[in-house]
Amino acid sequence: MRFGLFTSMGAQTWSGVLDLWRHIEATGWDIGCVTDHFMPNTKEREGAMLESWSTLSALAALVPRVRVGTIVLGNTYRHPAVVAKMAAQVDIISGGRLLLGLGAGWQQNEHEAYGIPFGTMRERLERLDEACQVMKALWSQRRSDFKGRYYQLADAPLDPKPVQTPHPELMIGGGGERVTLRIVAKHADHWNIWGGPGVLARKGAVLDAHCAAVGRDPKTITPRRRRARHLPGGHSGRDPRPAPPAPRGRGGRAVHPEPVPSPGRAAPRPGSVYCRDRPGVPVGAPTAPWGRPRRRSRGEPCSA
User: Fold this and answer.
1) How would DSSP label each residue in the chain?
2) Which of 61-70, 154-163, 236-245, 274-283 is predicted least confidently?
C-alpha cells in the first residue's frame, strides 16, 4: 500500500506548502500532489491561489524523495505541447519522479475571468483525448506531427526528453462512464476517482469494459482513490468530528489514513490520501501528528 497527500493551492503560502511537503518527506509518505486552479470557485473569486506548475517545480527541487504530481491539471488552461514541455522539465528536475495528472477542466469562473474558452463538456473531453496523444507523441518521438480538431503539431521537437521512459506516468481524473473512462482506457497509466469502494468497484467494471474494447489489460492501469478529510486549523491535526466507517481495501483491511499539517502552522486546506494496495508492501501511515509510519499487522486499521 502506498500513501500520498494532495495539497490545495488555495489559501496557502509558499512557506507553508514547503513546510508541509518537507514533513511528508521526512515521515515516509510516498507522493505529494498539487491542485491546479487560478482562483477560488466562488462568486466573489477572492482569495490567494498559488500557481501549480511553478510551485511543483520548486517542490521537485527542494523535496528530493517523494514522487511529485498534479491532481489534476485543467487541460483547457494550457496547450498540451506546452504542458509536455513543462512536464519534461519537472521530470528532469525531480530525477524522474513526476506523475502528471490531467483532467478535462471544469471550473467555469476561471475561464470567464481570464478569457479562456470553456466549450461544452463534449468539446472539453475531445480536447482531453487529443491532448493525451499530443503529449505522448512529443515525449516519445524525436519529431511529432499531429492533426486533430483542436491541436496540431508540425515536425515538432521536444528536447530534452523526460527522464522516465517512454514518458512520465499519466494519470487521468474523472469518472464519466461513457467518454472519460474510455479516454482512461486508451491513454492513462493511473486513474483518479473520488469515492469509496462501492464507487471504485462500479466504475472499475465500466473501465474494464472500455479496456476490453480497446484491447488493453485493465491491470496496467492503477486506480488511485481519493477520500477527502477536512482538517480544521489551530489544533494538532486530528479532526474532532466522528470518523465515518473505514472503507475496506484488498483482503478486508480497513483503509482510513489522514493527512497531517506541518509543525508550527495551521492545518492544510481539505486534502486527501491515496490508498494503493501493493502485494508484499506493509500498511503504513502516520500514527500520530508528526509520527513516523510504523509497520501494521494485517487487518489493523490505518487510522490512529
Assistant:
1) -EEEEEE--BT--HHHHHHHHHHHHHTT--EEEE---SS-SSSS--S-B--HHHHHHHHHHH--SSEEEES-EEGGGS-HHHHHHHHHHHHHHHTS-EEEEEE----HHHHHHHT-----HHHHHHHHHHHHHHHHHHHH-SEEEEE-SS-EEEEEE--SPPSSSS--EEEEE---TTTHHHHHHHH-SEEEEES-HHHHHHHHHHHHHHHHHHT--GGGSEEEEEEEE---SSSSS---SPPPPPPB-GGG-B------PPTTSPPPSSEEEEEE--TTPPP---SSTTPPP----TT--S--
2) 274-283
